[in-house]
Design a protein that fits this description.
Helices cover 0% and strands 55% of the residues. By secondary structure, it is mainly β. The chain has a single domain, classed as Nucleic acid-binding proteins (OB fold (Dihydrolipoamide Acetyltransferase, E2P), Beta Barrel), CATH 2.40.50.
């Protein structure tokens, strides 16, 4: 399911070579862990989204388990 939420980044961790795992705090969904692929690469447009205390509108996909 695809979600579009407003939230704030409360935690950011490195994951592998070029990825980051970010914890978002949202009003509607609570805490959500999101993998941002390519966030550690030099020319990535997603690098600024992975900074702590960044407020914005995030779109992420949740896979049904």
């Amino acid at each position: 399911m695809l979600y579009r939420v407003e939230g704030i980044v409360i935690r950011s961790m490195d994951y592998g070579e070029g990825n980051k795992i970010v914890t978002l705090l949202t009003k509607t969904n609570g805490k959500a862990g999101v993998l941002i692929r390519g966030a550690k690469k030099v020319k990535s447009r997603h690098a600024s989204l992975a900074q702590p205390f960044t407020y914005g509108e995030f779109v992420f996909f949740e896979r049904a388990v």
